[in-house]
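Sequence in, structure out.
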Amino acid sequence: MKINFKKIIKKAFSISITTLSVAMILLGILGLFLAYINPIPWVAGYFPIDFAGFYMTGEQAFQEIKTWQATPILSGAVAIAAIFSGLFLHAHNYKKWWRTIKASPRAIANSPMATYRKLKAGRDWLLEKIEYLNTESTKWRRAFNVMKSPYSFLRMMGFSPQMALGLIAVGGTAGTGVVVNETVFAERSFANGDAGIYAAPHNTPDETLEATMRWREENEEDNTLRIVLGTTPVREIKIENVSVGTVYSNSALPSGKTEVMLIEGTDVSGGTATRLEIGELIFEKNRCKKLEFDDIKAHTINVIGNASDGQSLNTSPGTARMRGIGGGHHQAEAMVTSGGLYDRIWIDAPTSAVNGKIGKLHLSNIYTKGGPCILRQMDIGTLTIQLNETGAGDGFATKDFEIKAGVTGANWNVTDNVEVSISEPTTSTP
């Protein structure tokens, strides 16, 4: 085997130069550090040093570094020179280094445009993917709307979820798309506009509550939307674009009930009464036979642009504080439903000594007939009552829109509320 001494010597020389360059760089960095910072007070516990005949006390080390720091500019220059010397020793191609140094100003000048081009390419790629996903999402939404149309049409006509499902099954028009998109074969849900007793913030009716309160057994045809508030704060409850009471054909108020909408705390029999704590309550663009607010303490109350067949607005002063409802990680997300037909809407807090807490309660475009809309037993940050129409067609002498003396506010804004002749809407076919 032939030994290539030239290659061995060259390799050994390269290793030696690399070792020397690294040592010079490290010593230069250490010298630059010691030119301005004396670390001996922090490492004094490791002195004296006695190794292979070398002996040094902490005081001696401290004074040596002080001597080095006596001329910090010179010491720093020596350290930097050692670092650059080590770097040049490590370089194998000085011409390449020189070309890099000469090209640096131009590279620095061109870097903004080069960076912009890279960002532009990334932006175009991202927007292309977003446009593709939006197109696919639109196609899938259209496909699901087509597949669910038989069920949605029957619900729009006023049929209960169970009856709509039965008619679809008998008619043989239900496809698997209905099952996939709306899970009508599995369960009712708040988001889909199904009636039931919902334990906030759950999106499906609570079977235990329905059985305990005998709501399903005693009122099999009952189509009430009820939200039961407990210990969990809810970030937002929003109900909009729904018809309630006898405003649509084949509907009736539940047995023994008179209100089409009841939002309240609860006088618990044998227990402690509860209240609803709400950061912001917006009651807007609703139609009621009679609208009544009572036993409410709010910081700010806005009553704006309401029309009613007789009104009585008591602006009683109060000292309620500003209010916001939080709950951190355990606060529930929003409960939102849009569109639906109900016999009654009921939100309450029936558990003794447990106030219901809602960050924002938004009731909008709720069309009712057959009974009053009543809101009471609440502590609110901001209450806004605006653009509602209220009346039973019984003349201005009967006050169909009432804010009673039990409603107090630290700040009142009451503007543009008018009395006009308004009667209940006629019953219509859904």
